[in-house]
């Protein structure tokens, strides 16, 4: 709907940032993700939708290295990350937020963000104990960057509060700030508008576009609020029971009979988790 | 004693001491006061005063308490910062002690190595300077921290606790039975290694009665450990430790290598354990394997818990108090009690009961410890904002499902293959 011609152009011209090739994930007998291929172009917003239990979060977990795919390959930029451990994948520029917020509760908002700079900082124990000029410079820069990111997501005022004491909305924002501290090329957001009111969800759409443009990254979004999905996405992929049943622009998806069936045919207006 | 000074310094109005200088100054002031008390004041007291201090606060009990402080600060890094429950920390104390035993005595009489040692150059054995042995003991323990940690840190917390418990039992056993390893006497068995050389400062050697000087040296070592702890806490590594304590899975998703970070907590903690071991060997002038039993690990844990996990000053205070109760307070109280009431109760034998009781009571009534870190107090006494919200407080948006994240620590059921550090995969039944 609001997909501008300009983003369409960048979609075509942009290089592929992430390529997931024929991913299958089995939990015992249950096939949670079945042979799903998928690409994310540069500077784009791609949404992953589907009913509850379709395998969306599982797919995220494969991309971030938390689950190992039963078969298939994931390539981030030029690097094959299929068999890399999570912290390596994160350092290569794949950042995520969690469906259920997972912050470091007893650390301040600022420290939460700094934790995600771990792979960018290099001062070892010796430099930290002695506080060498190099270490102090590095810490100062980290501090500045953390403050900037907190301002960017709009919670600069609570930088020194413990994460667990922030309001729910601020915790969601802090998760994004923390993820951005990885300087990612792909930002995975797992149901970021859960618990937001319609107004907040509306602002969220602008926020996602601002992140995409200012931080020069692509966003992969799991989202249930269809109005958000339709407004924010350059492209949508639909999963149902582990299978990819449709893929295309918001307009394509809106009129796709299989999608309508998947959503309405079985459980009606079931809002999924 | 030493530890409550920084908070007092903070409260002093009108004294513009830069924040970062506060604890070193307060610490030094307290240390010097105690030193002066034992060097000048107490020896010049009347007979009654001298007896009182000799009975209730002998300098040797302060020295021993300082050794406990050093070791407890090491355990604090592992348990308080990184959140890894270690029930066998005595292993590092023992390893440090035996390092001193080997390198500062005539035990290896086959050789004759002297490096600034505290013995005449003609005697056989290995006689290396106390200061060098401190470094060697620290390094040796760090190495063992990694050796013990590498296979065990992969385990989830409950299992880690059990395995460390095992190591804490095995290592003293090895020392007890190590007098005949293929014909080689490594540890002198249950007799231990005595005597250990005195500490040398320049050409002076500290004899058994130079307690004030030993006191100063132990205070210095404790200060170094405090310094290292606080500095690391404020840097990249300290943040990673806390992040792992708070949410291991989220930490790894933010680029924190779990194994490496946990191993480093183990290694740094072990360094403090090693320093304590070397210091203790010179404190008692030898090493005996039966000193290093399970109760030491539990006492150390009680010190960390009593003081407030993660808080350096709290842990220090906890260690000083418990060590004093153990070495002096309880026996003295016991003999006074028995004298007064004509009973014959062996009070010191109840120390384990006492510490266990303290652990239980602290857990029930004051989990944040006597000097809690502000963050710990937060968790334990104020409901978190999201908790309040989920209870219906009207603050902002509702907060669904926030507590599910806590399940990671306990989730070990069979499940999907989750990639771990080496990529071998562990079963972990958690949805993320
Ligand atoms: N760790 C796990 N162990 C077993 N089954 C799982 C696990 N994670 C997800 N599943 C199953 O995989 C399917 C897809 O789940 P999920 O990816 O969370 O769905 P979505 O995020 O689309 O709602 C569900 O049937 C779910 O029960
Ligand atoms: Mg999900």
From TrEMBL, chain A:
One of its GO terms (molecular function) is ATP binding. PROSITE patterns: ABC_TRANSPORTER_1, ABC_TRANSPORTER_2. Keywords: ATP-binding, Nucleotide-binding, Transport. InterPro entries: AAA+_ATPase, ABC_AA/LPS_Transport, ABC_transporter-like_ATP-bd, ABC_transporter-like_CS, BCA_ABC_TP_C, P-loop_NTPase. GO terms for biological process: D-alanine transmembrane transport; L-alanine transport; L-isoleucine import across plasma membrane; L-valine import across plasma membrane. This is ABC transporter ATP-binding protein. One of its GO terms (cellular component) is plasma membrane. Residues 18-266 form the ABC transporter domain. It comes from the Bacteria. SUPFAM superfamilies: P-loop containing nucleoside triphosphate hydrolases (SSF52540). The keyword ATP-binding applies.
